[in-house]
Design brief:
Glutaredoxin; five-stranded mixed beta sheet; two-stranded antiparallel sheet; 15 helices; 57% helix
Length: 357
């Protein structure tokens, strides 16, 4: 079902529809939009403009986007819990497999795409002038409620320049905070290239991440593609050079609908093409998770880690630890046979120990 888009001048109840407040160049806004479209959930997409910012943030309790307003008027956010909660109301074309290996792998892949890939995203977006101007400009125009091709008058240009400057300053500081600053460029950009190569190899033989049906992490990857990797000029060029299959994948995800959902592999099998990607996750994100968990437990605000390019001191991430602990609890709740089968998939790639509490 196609969404209607309005200008975001008021925060109504959507006439019984869900409302999604966000921005076009937002990773997690596009993740949510992709999911709602796939499920056929009636919704309106509204830009979170400066005109509604105060009301939306007061009612939701967050400055983050997207914010989803339910038909009952509740303001909710945090895309993964929102989506998993909606699965109970809209079960057709479910996005989490029922079998243990595929289900846990979907959770691990989504954890990586939600909590680790964004550090590569912010690095590419905010430290390259062309990318910052493209996407930062788009975000500011969304905030102002001005279309991409509209000319700005003098007062509007002054607002644009001020907000853009604040936004880019925030982006650069965020890069440093997550260990993706200018001094980390070699490591981050090499890792992004490997990520694209792994996806290209996998998508040569698989329609989606887990087979012929979209699963939870596919919507996160779609958000990354729509808002960043196929939007910002530098990663878009890189995708064209080394991962052209992502263009086909993006089209397939845009057309996917729950009523026509395919199937995941029989027998709880895992697509063999995922092995290189899992190995990359094991060599990066899985090395970060236990260090971060220890830092959170100790109440530390920073941690030091070496991912192969020398030690880096970066901010501790409490929400990332919350996500890790949730997956660890899901694994711990499995019966012995299921748990062993999951271990047989994750352990060889270095993706097991981080979820053992």
């Amino acid at each position: 079902m196609a969404a209607s888009t309005v200008d975001g001048t008021g925060a109504g109840n959507g006439g019984g529809n869900y409302i999604i407040y966000g921005a076009d160049a937002s990773y997690f806004t596009q993740k949510a939009l992709s999911y709602f479209a796939y499920k056929g959930i009636p919704f309106e997409y509204r830009k979170k403009t400066l005109a509604v910012q105060g009301e939306v943030e007061e009612k939701s309790g967050t400055h983050m986007i997207p914010v989803v307003v339910t038909p009952g008027g509740d303001y909710i956010w945090d895309t993964t819990p929102v989506m998993l909660g909606l699965e109970e109301k809209f079960p057709a074309g479910g996005i989490l497999p029922a079998t243990p290996r595929q289900r846990i792998l979907a959770r691990v892949l989504e954890d990586y795409l939600d909590e680790w890939v964004p550090r590569m995203v912010v690095h590419m977006r905010w430290l390259n002038d062309a990318d910052a101007e493209t996407s930062g400009g788009a975000i500011v125009r969304d905030m102002m409620g001005v279309s991409a091709d509209a000319a700005l008058d003098v007062p509007q240009q002054a607002i644009f320049d001020q907000v853009f400057g604040q936004l880019r300053d925030w982006g650069i500081k965020t890069c440093e905070k997550v260990g993706a600053g200018r001094g980390d460029a070699a490591q981050v950009e090499e890792e992004l290239g490997r990520f694209f190569v792994c996806l290209e190899a996998h998508l040569q033989s698989s329609k989606y991440l887990l087979g012929d049906r979209p699963s939870l992490p596919d919507f996160t990857l779609m958000g990354a593609l729509q808002a960043h990797f196929l939007f910002d000029p530098t990663p878009r060029a890189l995708v064209g050079q080394i991962a052209p299959s992502l263009g086909r994948y993006h089209s397939d995800m845009g057309a996917a609908r729950a009523g026509d959902a395919g199937a995941w592999p029989l027998g709880d099998e895992i697509p063999i093409g995922l092995t290189p990607l899992l190995q990359q996750i094991g060599a990066t994100f899985m090395r970060f998770l236990p260090v971060n968990a220890a830092a959170v437990a100790a109440g530390d605000k920073e941690l030091t880690i070496d991912l192969g390019h020398g030690p880096r001191t970066i901010a501790t991430r409490r929400y990332t630890e919350k996500c890790r602990a949730q997956i660890a609890a899901e694994i711990a709740a499995l019966d012995d046979v299921s748990r062993a089968s999951v271990e047989a998939i994750l352990a060889p790639a270095g993706c097991w120990d981080a979820y053992q509490d």
